[in-house]
Amino acid sequence: MKKTKYNRWTRISLLIVLLLYLGIYLFLYVEKDQQTNRYRSTQLSDTYRYNFAQPLEELMIKTPKEGLLNALLFKASQPKGVVCFWKGNGGTLANWGTMAPFFLQFGYDVLITDYRQHGKSKGPISLANFYTDAQTVYDSLKRRYSENKIVICGYSLGGRIGAHLASTNRPKFTFLIDPASAGGDFSDRFTYLLYYPFPSVNGFTFLTDQDVQNALSPVVVVSTDNPHSTAYQLRSVLTSEDQLLVIPGATHASILNHLQTMKLLKKLLSD
Question: Distance of CA 221 to CAs 154, 160, 170, Å?
C-alpha cells in the first residue's frame, strides 16, 4: 500500500516538474522577440553636439524597416582607407568616438555607428535589423572608398556584426576583438542545452562561427584565454589565411585596449 502511494506521488511530482518545464519554455519562447532590452542604451537628443578634436562628418543613415542610424566619420589627413568600426553594446558615440585617434594615426578614416536606440539612432531592434543596418552602412562606405581599402573592425557585440558583414562582402580584412552577444555566451548555451531539441528561446542567435567560416577575405580574431568563449572557439573554423591571437590574462573588458591587441592592429594597418 505504501509503495503504491509512493509511486502515485512520484508520478504527480514528475508531472508537475514537466508542466513547469514546458510552461517556462513556452513563456520564454513567446517572449524571445522582447529581448531587445539587452540591446538598448542611453539616448541622446537630436540636437546633441559631439565634442571631438579630430575632423569629422556626422551622418544620419536611413536603413530598412524604419531605421535611422547616427554615425561619425572621422577623417585622416591623407587616408589610405577606412575602418568600419562596430562598437560593443551600450554607450553611445559620445564615448565610443574616443576610439577614432588610434585608427587615424595610421592614416585610416574611421566610421563609428550607433545601433538602433543608442544615442541618436532610432528604430525597432531585431537580429535581422542588426544585419541589414550593418550592410546599409557598409554599402554607404563602398560609395566613398574602394572595397579593398575598407577594414571591418568589431568588438564584443560589434564582433558579431562585423563577422556577418565579412561573410557577405570582401573587405581588405576583418578584425574581431572578443566577439560576444549582449547576454553572454554562457547564458545562450545554457538555455539552448536546457531546452534541446526544442526551438531556441534566444531571439538573438548570432551564428558567428558560420559567418567566419564563410568570410570572403582574411579574418583576424583576438581572444581571451577562456576556452569557452566564442572568440576562442573560432579557432576551429579559421583558415591558413586567418589569424588568431590569444592573450593570456586578458578579460572581455580589458582586451579592447590591450597592448597586444593594439600592436597587432598597428601591424596590420601599417602594411
Answer: 10, 11, 17
Residue 100 sits in which domain range? 31-270
Residue 19 has what pLDDT? Answer: 73
Number of H helices, E strands in the chain: 9, 8
pLDDT attached to residue 37 = 75
User: How many structural domains compose the chain?
Assistant: 1
pLDDT at 7: 74
Q: Is there a domain that residue 218 lies in? A: yes
Confirm if 96 and 157 have CB atoms less than 8 A apart.
Answer: no
Q: Which residues of the chain have pLDDT under 70?
A: 1-6, 21-36, 181-196, 198-204
Domain of 52, CATH number, reads 3.40.50.1820
Residue at 20 is within a domain: no
